[in-house]
Amino acid sequence: MFDSDFLKKLEYLSLVSRRVFRGQLLAQKRTKKLGSGVEFADHRDYAFGDDLRYLDWNVYARLGNRLIKRFEEEEDLHIYFFLDCSQSMSAGNADGLTKFDYARQITAALAYIALSDLDRVSVFPFADKIYDCFPLTRGKQHILSLLRFLEPLQTAGTTTDLSGCVKEFLHRKQHTGLAIIVSDLFAPAGFQKAVDTLRYQKFEPNLIQIHDAAEAVPDILGDRQLTDIETGAVRNVTISESVLRQYRQKFAAFLDSVRKYSIGNGNGCTITSTSVPFDEMVLRMMREAGGVK
Predict the structure, then answer these.
(1) pLDDT in tens, 175-221
(2) Do 63 and 90 sit in the same domain of this protein?
(3) Is residue 293 part of a domain?
(4) Are residues 10 and 55 in the same domain?
(5) Domain tally for the chain?
(6) Hey, how many other C-beta atoms are within 10 angstroms of the C-beta on 232?
(7) Do both 88 and 64 map to the same domain?
(8) DSSP string covering the chain, please?
C-alpha cells in the first residue's frame, strides 16, 4: 500500500502545504500560553522577586511605572487521528481498494504533512473499542514508523461505537488539540454525541466521511438476502427501482446531515468517495481551506 509512488505523493503534498499554508493546513492553530516566548502579550505590575530582565525599562524611563512584560509562547499542536477499522470499512470498489485502505492513505498523508510541520501526531484505530495506539510522535523522520504501524492493521469488531471510544480516549488524559475522525460514520448510535463530547472537552473535531460509490448509488435489483457485515444480522428484501430511489435519497440525506451538523457546530468536514484519489482529496481539502486555486 505504501510504495515508493505513494511516498513521492506524500512529499509533494507536504511541499505544497508548506508553500501555501505555512502551518495553516487542517486549521493548524498553535495553542498559546503565557511564558518566556518572543511574542509580546501584555503588561502586569511588578511584584517583589520578579526577574528584572522582563521589566519594561522604556515605560519605567518615561513614566516611572514598574511593569513586567508578558510574552506568548507556542505549544506544539497535538493531532489525534481516529481511524475507523470497523467491519463496514472493508467495503471496496472494483479496483480492490477498500474504504479502510483509503482511510489509511488519508491518515498517512495528513499525518505526514503534520509531522513535516513539527506537529505531534497520534493514531487510534477504533471500532467497538480502541484497538491500538500510535503514540504521540513529532518529526518527519518518524513517518516510516507510522506507515509500519498502519500497514498491518485490519478491520475488526462487531459494531462501531465512536462515543465509547472517545470516552476511552479521554480517560487517557490526552492534551487538547485536533481530533480528526476518518470514518464512514456508520455508527448505530450516531456520531454526533462523540463529536459533541470532544468539543466539550476543548478538542477541535474534524470529520472525514468516506464512502464507496456503490454505497451511495447501488444498482442491485430483485430478491436479495442482505447480511450486516458487522452484526451478522440477515434480512431478506425485494429491491425495486422505487426502493433504490428511496435508499439513494436517504443516503444523500445522511451525507447532508453530516455537512449540516459540522457547519452548525463549526467543525471541519470533508466528504469523499474512494473513487477520488487520496492525493486529490487532500488537495481538495487545501482548496476548501482557501489555500490552492
Answers:
(1) 899 999 999 999 888 999 999 999 999 999 999 999 998 899 888 88
(2) no
(3) no
(4) no
(5) 2
(6) 9
(7) no
(8) ---HHHHHHHHHHHHHHHHHTSS-GGG---EEEEES-SEEEEEEE--TT--GGGB-HHHHHHH---EEEEEEEEEPPEEEEEEE-BGGGG-B-TTS-BHHHHHHHHHHHHHHHHHHTT-EEEEEEESSSB---EEEEESGGGHHHHHHHHTT---B-SS--HHHHHHHHHTT-PPP-EEEEEE----TT-SHHHHHHHHHTT-EEEEEEEE-HHHHS----EEEEEE-TTT--EEEEEE-HHHHHHHHHHHHHHHHHHHHHHHHHT-EEEEEETTS-HHHHHHHHHHHTT---
Q: Chain centroid to CA 278: how far? A: 14
Domain range for 64 is 32-74
Q: Encode pLDDT of 88-133 as tens digits.
A: 999 887 678 999 999 999 999 999 988 887 788 999 999 999 999 9
Query: Which residue matches cell numbers 474512494?
Result: 274
Considering the domain architecture, whether residues 54 and 23 belong to the same structural domain is answered as: no
Question: 84 and 141: one domain?
Answer: yes
Residues 56 and 44 in one domain: yes
Shared domain check, 136 and 82? yes
